[in-house]
Amino acid sequence: MTVTSVHDPSHREALWELEDAFERGDLVSVFGTCTVSYEGRAASDLGAGDRLLVLKPDGAALVHTDEGRQPVNWQPPGSQHRAAVRDGRLRVVSTRSNPDETLTVRFSDVHQLSAMAVTGGRDLTLHGSEEDLRTRILERPGLVEPGFEPRETERPSNAGPMDVFGVDADGTPVVVELKRRRVGPDAVGQLARYVRALEEELGIEEAADDNGGTGDGDRDPDDAPGVRGILVAPSVTDRAAERLADRGFDHVALDPTPAE
Amino acid sequence: MTVTSVHDPSHREALWELEDAFERGDLVSVFGTCTVSYEGRAASDLGAGDRLLVLKPDGAALVHTDEGRQPVNWQPPGSQHRAAVRDGRLRVVSTRSNPDETLTVRFSDVHQLSAMAVTGGRDLTLHGSEEDLRTRILERPGLVEPGFEPRETERPSNAGPMDVFGVDADGTPVVVELKRRRVGPDAVGQLARYVRALEEELGIEEAADDNGGTGDGDRDPDDAPGVRGILVAPSVTDRAAERLADRGFDHVALDPTPAE
DNA sequence: GTATTGATCTCGTGC
DNA sequence: GCACGAGGTCAATAC
């Protein structure tokens, strides 16, 4: 089996194993007592402690403590790993450019080092994403509202691509913004940008909304809108609901996956 | 140091080690060939392949392939790990509630299993965050613009807390939104929400309070906005710049850390 | 390369 | 518990 593993190695022994593992393109895990420092997009220091260092052949480096889903320190894929023994410590440095950043892990003790050749088997089939929600709607447009007709997905606009563009039963243009989970006010802002961009593009002028300054698309919900906005999400927060009402947008409660 | 480590263990042997490690509250790493399935906020399946499984005493579980900073599958902290041998495979299941979700890892082969007791040493000192940017501005308000006077940070509003609230040289209220890096249109929307909320708030106060506020609260609707918005960030995208101009907001180029 | 947005985002903080 | 926003976010995609 292609796993090498050393228990309580000397620094020099650990160094050999690391260099071999880098050479082979192995996935490496190192248990040990170390300090960590990072400099790049920000800068950080982490005092001595026991941690797990994971080094990947694609250049990713992860320093994990006993808590949290997130590594306490890391280096993104595309970095270069190097190892050396300096000042009686095993030093692992991972660097990359653009942006320039460096992660340095200094081990006073290495307790356990393992390396394994790993290939393939990384394609995940995932269900329940925003894309699934879109598929669901395209297959059954009536879920949005009776008479809704999708015309285009990822339709380009000055404000970027809108999730779904279509028309309602009256033929009024509709912008649909999809979210796979409960949303806050930011999603309403996003929808508003698309609606506004489409209104400008279609040459639909809103009544009395061109004083520059703070005019930001407020409308009277009683007005017949030039372009409608519909937010499709399982639910919305109170503040988002307020903002939806302000803009005259609708919310449709829908999950990315059908109820089971 | 208490590191246990087994190479090419039988499933039963691996099971013992796992259960002991769970008992002791160890940080665990497992190299092996496995399939992974997840069901909860979404659902996913991953075919057989060699991976690294990390199990943390706080309940976090991470499945890593040879690529990427992100685990291909995971379970958040607060989950419960369990292990068993079923159908000739070593099965590790991690579950949590609220939301209900389950990660199942089935090993056909375990190549290497290590466990280490880990405590403390997880407080990181980080520099270059948004908070550093705020500190910088509070110490030298002139960086925003000459005459700017910060009055409050995290000032509450109907739209949430604004990063910095203050007044400019003319006494006009100013909302400052801070970003540690280059920003897109979303940040302008965020700033706009705060400015709008503050305008409404001040409008209500003026209407409800006959004395008006301080003398410097006067403004000319045609000329100056009631509330100014300033986005402080290293830089902004074109679309964000457009949007800033639309709203009449200003951009101040500033890094979280002084140039070196 | 930059820009934009989704994510099983995670994580902290405040209510 | 929910809501809101930051993050060295990461990662995919379009340009």
* Terminal residue distance of chain A: 43 Å
**Overall domain count of chain A:** 2
Q: What is the general shape of chain A? A: elongated
CATH second-level architecture of the largest domain in chain A: 3-Layer(aba) Sandwich
State the gist of this model.
Chains A, B: Belongs to the NucS endonuclease family. Helices cover 20% and strands 39% of the residues of chain A.
Describe the structure.
The structure is a homodimer of 260-residue chains. Chain A is α+β, with helices and mostly antiparallel strands. Helix content of chain A is 20%, strand content 39%. Chain A is built from four helices and 14 strands. Chain A has helices at residues 11-24, 130-139, 185-202, 238-247, and strands at 3-7, 27-39, 43-55, 61-64, 73-75, 80-86, 89-96, 101-116, 124-127, 149-155, 162-167, 173-178, 228-233, 250-253. In chain A, strands 1, 2, 3, 4, 5, 6, 7 and 8 form an eight-stranded antiparallel β-sheet that branches. A five-stranded mixed β-sheet of chain A has the order 10-11-12-13-14, with helices on both faces. In chain A, helix 3 (185-202) packs parallel to helix 4 (238-247). The longest helix of chain A is centred in the C-terminal third of the chain and has 18 residues, at 185-202. The two termini of chain A are 43 Å apart. Strand 3 (43-55) of chain A pairs antiparallel with strand 9 of chain B. The first copy, chain A, binds a DNA duplex (15 and 15 nucleotides) through helix 3.
